[in-house]
Amino acid sequence: MLIRIAGIEPESYVDGEGIRFTIFLQGCLRNCPGCQNPGTHNPDGGRAVDTAEIVSAFKRDFLLTGITLSGGEPLMQPEAALELAKAAKNSGLNVWCYTGYDYEKIPGNCAELLKNIDVLVDGAYIENLRDLDLQFRGSRNQRIIDLNKTRETGEIVLWRES
């Protein structure tokens, strides 16, 4: 399956806990002022890559803790993102995902993808809420949600509280 990406960081230490294979998906309609990845906004930008090529690349690195779906907005390409998430889970890796959506407002067509994400960083980047002391997020409104615990309890459980 083809996925449109802006780029890949094969061993990131800032896009979630541990050593992560981060895929920056192309396309975001939010255009948040101060966004750190404005080159990912144009849905027609970046390049098309076969998801099998990406899976092959992260399966070769035995140092990885997991993969991170970032962007852009990963939820704009839910089917391709799901394919990557399932392959990661099948390889024993955890999956983090960054989205500009608030968890409660994620579109229904992303339900299957959410089932394959372990940690979700949600919420639009808000420049006047920027805080350089935050771990794994850019603005104070964003949450780091432990989706496994959230599914278990039926209520939102933040990652560091789980």
Comma- or semicolon-separated keywords:
single chain, about 160 residues, 7 strands, 4 helices, alpha/beta
Write a structural description.
The protein has helices spanning 51-59, 78-90, 111-115, 147-153, and strands spanning 2-12, 20-25, 47-50, 66-70, 94-98, 119-122, 143-146. Helix 1 (51-59) runs parallel beside helix 2. Strand 5 (94-98), helix 3 and strand 6 form a beta-alpha-beta unit. The model has no long low-confidence stretch (mean pLDDT 96). By secondary structure, the protein is α/β, with parallel strands linked by helices. The protein has a 7-stranded mixed β-sheet.
Topology of this protein?
Layout: E1 2-12, E2 20-25, E3 47-50, H1 51-59, E4 66-70, H2 78-90, E5 94-98, H3 111-115, E6 119-122, E7 143-146, H4 147-153
Parallel strand pairs: 2-4, 4-5, 5-6
Antiparallel strand pairs: 1-2, 1-3, 6-7
Tally of DSSP helical segments: 4
Distance between the termini: 35 Å
* Low-pLDDT stretches: none
Shape: globular
Describe the structure concisely for a colleague.
With 162 residues, the protein is α/β, with parallel strands linked by helices. The chain is built from four helices and seven strands, in the order E-E-E-H-E-H-E-H-E-E-H. A seven-stranded mixed beta sheet has the order 3-1-2-4-5-6-7.
